[in-house]
Amino acid sequence: MVVVLYTNDFPLASQNFLKLCNIKYYNNCLFHTVHKDFLVQTGDPTATGSGGHSFYKLLCGHQRTFFKDEIDPHIMHDIVAVVAMASAGPNLNASQFYIPTRPHLDYLDGKYTVFGIVRKGLDVLMKINDAYVDAENFPYQNIRIKHTYVLEDPFEDPTQVDELRPQSSPAARYGS
Where does the signal peptide begin and end (predicted)? Predict the structure, then answer.
């Protein structure tokens, strides 16, 4: 999938996402939640749905585990394939994100930072949406982000980014 980010409107979420992609944080992450015809969620390296942290934590420590919401009332969950931060509450954004697989999820508007949209690979998104899942919406077969590539990054890399980037992609930790 190719995701286009709204970097000017949502710089915190966009920079966090880009830098996590750049350091291969998302490589081999499971899509741990698939709600058919609702949304798919990933970005948790523990694959539990409750893990993960922001790029800012890697730079600054635990006081920056999360970052604040960036809400724009004009950017909504009105179409399929917007990309939004998944969080457990206000200003608790870290690494997890979701992608709706149906339009008009207006009850999510104003609660989650929508910071991008899938521009290529909607067929892949719909295949993930069609996965067989258990009662907790966890796919029976593992579905992973194989690898991330950053095509364009308007944000300057902090000096520590090379130290954070692994020599190779992280190994899959849960299942195959």
Answer: none
Mind listing the pLDDT tens digit for each residue in 30-70?
999 999 999 999 999 988 888 899 999 988 878 788 999 99
| pLDDT tens for each residue of 89-110 | 999 999 999 999 999 999 999 9
Residue 22 has pLDDT above 60, yes or no: yes
Burial of 166 (0-12, 13-18, 19+ CB in 10 A): exposed
CB 117 within 8 A of CB 78: no
**Which 3-state string (H, E, C) describes 65-119?**
CCECCCCCCCCCCCCCCEEEECCCCCCCECCCEEEECCCCCHHHCCCCCEEEEEE
At the top level of CATH, the class of 2-154 is mainly beta
For the chain, domain boundaries: 2-154
Secondary structure string (H, E, C) spanning 27-79: CCCECCEEECCCEEEECCCCCCCCCCCCHHHHHHCHHHCCECCCCCCCCCCCC
Question: pLDDT at residue 170 above 70?
Answer: no
The answer to whether 94 touches 66, Cβ cutoff 8 Å, is yes
Task: Report the distance separating Cα 115 and Cα 113, nearest Å.
Answer: 6
Q: Which of 65, 58, 66, 70 shows the shortest CA–CA distance to 24? A: 58
